[in-house]
Design brief:
It is a single chain. By secondary structure, the protein is an alpha/beta fold. It has helices spanning 6-19, 25-37, 41-46, 54-68, 73-77, 101-111, 128-137, 148-160, 193-196, 219-227, 247-256; strands at residues 79-82, 85-88, 118-122, 140-145, 165-169, 181-186, 232-241, 260-266, 272-278. A seven-stranded mixed β-sheet has the order 5-4-3-6-7-9-8, with helices on both faces. The protein has a two-stranded antiparallel ribbon with strand order 1-2. Helix 1 packs across helix 2 (25-37), helix 2 runs antiparallel to helix 4 and helix 6 (101-111) runs parallel beside helix 7 (128-137). The chain is elongated. It binds glutamine. Glutamine binds next to loops.
Length: 280
């Protein structure tokens, strides 16, 4: 028992994660120790010889066991950062992913020098896209989310970040906006039926409703491109996140619906990640 110092427990946690193939094990172990102790990273460094109470050790063991069963680290921590901002997350809401920063960058490039612009975010989930755009472009964003559980996170995350975002509880398939927007963005569910069979074990804990985009994964793109075109101002842009292999199908959908200047943007991993187009 005398060995149950922070340093010892960190190493044990790291080893257990690594043996289970969970990487990066050192990063995750640090996050878990930080969560259990309530210490900052630098406090952990200066207190590495401190012993944890039996209560904290029990908590640590139960967290490590859940993680070893591939329960997402983000749900355990209850928050995650995206585009330099912090968001609450938990069951019922999609975890913000770094890939999605490509969608935010597309919107920010478009909104550069546009004052008083208004944006619409469809399938908002945690609100990470809407909040990141609003905070960084200084524009107001309407954020539509259908599911109550996710909507609660959306509301909390808008407050947490004091963002100029209006949450709207509605279904993207029948929502009728009361204005026209400069830009409409969406990270809709886009995994196909075949794709759902091979998602990571971690992802199985996330809501299917945020992942499954119909048999071919494209159902939301048809609806969004068609239904929301008339809610874009002249010169306005639609930008959607896509799966890495959907660039040509989604570009085709935008073109068929009359969008011009259709283009593709890659994420940091060099995968096609965003399709955009404008209306004239
Ligand atoms: N990028 C997510 C994944 O592959 C899917 C998110 C989505 O469907 N919008 O896990």
């Amino acid at each position: 028992m005398s060995k149950q110092t922070i340093f010892y427990l960190y190493n044990e946690t790291k080893k257990a994660l690594k043996d289970a193939g969970i990487t990066p094990a050192n990063f995750e172990a640090k996050q878990i120790i930080r969560y259990v102790t309530g210490y900052t990273n630098s406090e952990i460094l200066s207190r590495y010889n401190e012993q944890l109470s039996p209560l904290k050790i029990t908590a640590l063991n139960s967290i490590v066991n859940r993680r070893l069963q591939h329960y997402p680290l983000q749900y355990i921590l209850g928050e995650w950062s995206f585009y330099g901002l912090d968001f609450y997350v938990g069951e019922g809401v999609l975890i913000p992913r770094a890939d999605t920063e490509a969608l935010v960058e597309t919107a920010l490039d478009f909104l550069k020098d546009k004052r008083e612009a208004v944006a619409l975010d469809l399938c908002s989930g945690s609100g990470c896209v809407a909040v990141a755009i609003s905070k960084n472009a200084g524009v107001s964003v309407d954020a539509v989310e259908k599911y109550e559980a996710a909507y609660e996170y959306l509301e909390k995350n808008i407050k947490r970040n004091a963002a100029n975002v209006t949450p709207i509880l509605a279904d993207v398939f029948d929502f009728v906006p009361d204005k026209k927007y400069d830009i409409i963005v969406s990270n809709p569910p886009y995994i196909s039926a075949a794709g759902m069979d091979i998602i990571d074990e971690e992802t199985t804990h996330e809501p299917d409703s945020a992942l499954y985009g119909g048999e071919d994964g494209l159902i939301f793109y048809h609806t969004i491109a068609n239904r929301y075109r008339k809610f874009l101002k002249n010169g306005g842009m639609l930008a959607v996140e896509i799966g890495f292999d959907q660039a040509s199908s989604v570009s085709k959908i935008l073109k068929l619906n009359g969008y011009k200047n259709v283009g593709v943007k890659k994420d940091y991993g060099e995968n096609d990640r965003v399709v955009f187009g404008t209306v004239e």
